[in-house]
């Protein structure tokens, strides 16, 4: 997208904002970044600093969040683990994102995850509840089926529909905020595996065919504006929970893209430096590419690599 | 002063009773854990936990001030006062300003000491079940969790539904706790029995059936402070006796049966002569005279067999009392025996694998971490349901016959989706007032093995359907269950029993209907091997790798 196109989009967004804010967000979300950036990779900073830098690469948070929008952040809060154990998304990162969205004029920022451990303890011990509430966001419960609504997945191969959290279905724009980790079942968990926390019946994934179902749910029509991958600390073995600090390696990085396949591919390559894992191992990445969700060919994308 | 005493009693009862009730009904687990101290000072929990200091204080307080315990500490005593309060309102409003009128009743010594012996003797040989059935604290717990908690959950969810719809998430939906019919049944029986007894005979439960009341009565008989009648002022008008919910004031002989007095202080203000006081007269010389007088009265009133016949014949109200009570006790006993008889074939049919998930050859269900052993747990637990109501994942459930007859109502771990023992949690150990679940630090609890995972390869989706899964390993906090190479790049679970603590994460998440991995409980809990980890040496990563 060149500058003219961008200006056109902005003008269109401005016009649409007067009529319908969510329409504007869709236009912007579809257009992804503003400067033709497909993927941003940052290394060497603290989580909040890297987040601000990443957003700057996309033209600031204002590219994605407009005044009055309802925003949802979906970090990984699956486990009753402290931040150092890296079982969940870094709380500083989530807190900073809440702050950014509110600064851009978001009417509210909601944060949830359908956790694996008891959700009250996960929200608490992950440090995410504290960080989100301190920044002015709201934690939303997700541990009851009544919080979910049935959504069709026409492009899904095995999974044809799923019950997805209402907060996400109703919001104007959402951000997927996974943490990069080893995973015993899916081999690696990044942005696409993180989708399992927006659905109610996770067990169906395991009985139908885990890797295919992960790819299927990512075909959900409402795409996040960005997949922001926390690779600051990473569980490299005994994932996804990790059982001790010995399982955690500091990668000190942050990746972001609107393309889940691309960002997962990049994350896999980053992770492989600590513990080798191949695209063939993490077969949901290839399966998602086959469904047209994104591309594994990073060389064809405009990737920004920044070392701080 | 007299009025002050009554207000003090009422205030303390409302505060203590209210706090205990809230602690049991805390559906969103927001109450501080130290509140369990209110339960540790209950007689039966202190006795079973072996807290000599607490018992000594309780007995000393009783020796000094009488059975204040029964009025301001015991939640079941306070509950009875609440029921009585309802009766008073009913009398005043529905029955048009009628007042509660009681009359003196002789003590039901055979019954109360009989129950004490029936509960106490088995206890000496480690049989806690009779005590479990009659302990006032545990009975209250079962009423609170079985009957009141569902109402609390319903109210919470109603409010949460309204608030959440309006975008406020300060309350959230709580899954309904399915505490099983057995708790509800026992709670209903006890509550109905209490309502009937209170409505007809006020605090008779505390003075005829409750083993704690009888035990404390043996001490309060000799208490220093006591409700005392001033013989010079008393004109035997009977006002005090008609306001005594223990029915222990005999205005004719001008005596108060201190073994039954629960120090409610209701009588003090009522005496038109100002002849009743709560005073430290118990150990004085005047008291000795009283004792002699009482002895005389007792001698006069204790019936010889012939007289007893007469009393029955003329259907004296008191005697009728005693009769109907013995009848009640008999009926209870019969009911209990029938229940037991009915349960026997059921338990035989069920064997010991009446389990939550599918049909698996499980021989023993796991007990809560810290239960030490089957025997220890059966000796100490009185099935108050506190741990059941506090367990954040609701994995602790009262057993029906999963643990045999003696296990009935006592908790065990029932694994189902999202219900397994949370690794970072030891709330059951922190709150159990009986030390049936012993106090363990979180670190100790993380190494307490309650059972061992067994893997059934043939049922596993990796083996059966050739698919990735690994949900069990994903949920295993110690990686006792971990994935090892199988075929075609697939990995399959493997169990290292020495690392397993039996938390049931694997069993609860297994997608197979009859789970491919399940936990077999242990009779004696063990210490698991701490996992040994080595830091992966990756050097410094300063490149993106792409």
What does the secondary structure layout of this molecule look like, with pairings?
The complex is a heterodimer of chains A (308) and B (546).
Chain A: H1 3-19, H2 21-31, E1 39-43, H3 47-57, E2 70-75, H4 91-103, E3 108-111, H5 119-125, H6 128-135, E4 138-139, E5 148-152, E6 161-165, H7 166-170, E7 173-177, E8 179-183, E9 187-189, H8 203-208, H9 210-217, E10 226-235, E11 248-257, H10 260-272, H11 283-290, E12 303-307
Helix pairs in contact in A: 1-2, 3-4, 4-6, 9-11
Chain B: H1 2-24, H2 37-40, H3 43-49, H4 52-65, H5 68-72, H6 75-93, H7 109-124, H8 129-134, H9 136-165, H10 180-201, H11 204-209, H12 211-220, E1 226-229, E2 249-250, E3 255-256, H13 266-270, E4 276-279, H14 285-301, H15 305-313, H16 317-350, H17 374-380, H18 386-390, E5 396-398, E6 411-413, H19 427-431, H20 442-445, E7 448-455, H21 461-465, H22 471-475, E8 481-485, E9 491-495, H23 505-509, E10 517-527
Antiparallel strand pairs in B: 1-4, 2-3, 5-6, 7-10, 8-9
